[in-house]
Amino acid sequence: MNLLGIPYNQLTGSTPFTIFNISRIKVIAFTGNSLSGNLPNALCYGLPILKGLYLSINKLRGHMPTSSSSCCQHQILSLSENEFDGPIHSEIGRLSNLQLLYLGFNHFTGIIPQGIGNLVNLVELVMDKNYITGSVPISIFNISSLQILSLSTNNLSGFFPQEIGSLTKMHFLYLDENRFTGTY
């Protein structure tokens, strides 16, 4: 089975943990439902070839599973518009094949981990509308493939690094509604 998906329906209740044990699935898509509960901490152990996880626009809550770093085949991780809270774990930097990372419209707190710069294949990084603090890590500007960077509506502060000029493939940059200072 390559795809397990029932997007944009009226599914409710907890995410069925048994789907995380179907080893031949490449894509799980449950976007736009009313699924609730926490994701299992052992998110990818039973999914060795999972490339895409689409769980946006649900009612999932709790912390981002730390074991998501074991999803080494991941190319797309879409968790936007849920009720996730807590920090974005530094282990996210281990998802070396990740191309699209959507974490916007949640309740994430803390800083953007430096390890995010290890995602050298990342094309889109969306973390808008959270409660992320601190400065933008310089490591983000090492991701030469980055085309969309959306960090708007957070509590980011400090000077914005001049290294932003190294993102030559950038198409869209959203930084509004933060607390940046300085002269540009």
Describe the structure.
- By secondary structure, this protein is mainly β.
- It has one domain (3-180): Ribonuclease Inhibitor (Leucine-rich repeat, LRR (right-handed beta-alpha superhelix)).
- The chain contains no helices and 16 strands.
- The chain has an 8-stranded parallel sheet, with no helix packed on it.
- The chain is globular.
Count structural domains: 1
CATH architecture title: Alpha-Beta Horseshoe
As for the CATH topology, it is: Leucine-rich repeat, LRR (right-handed beta-alpha superhelix)
Gross geometry: globular
Largest sheet: 8 strands, parallel
Q: What class, by secondary structure content?
A: mainly beta
The overall average pLDDT, rounded, is 89
- Given the structure, what is the number of helices? 0
Query: Rg from C-alpha positions?
Result: 16 Å
The fraction of residues assigned to DSSP E strands is: 25-35%
- DSSP E strands, number: 16
- What is the CATH superfamily label? Ribonuclease Inhibitor
Topology as a string of helices (H) and strands (E): EEEEEEEEEEEEEEEE
Major sheet strand order: 1-3-5-7-9-11-13-15
The low-confidence runs, each spanning 5 or more residues with pLDDT under 50, are: none
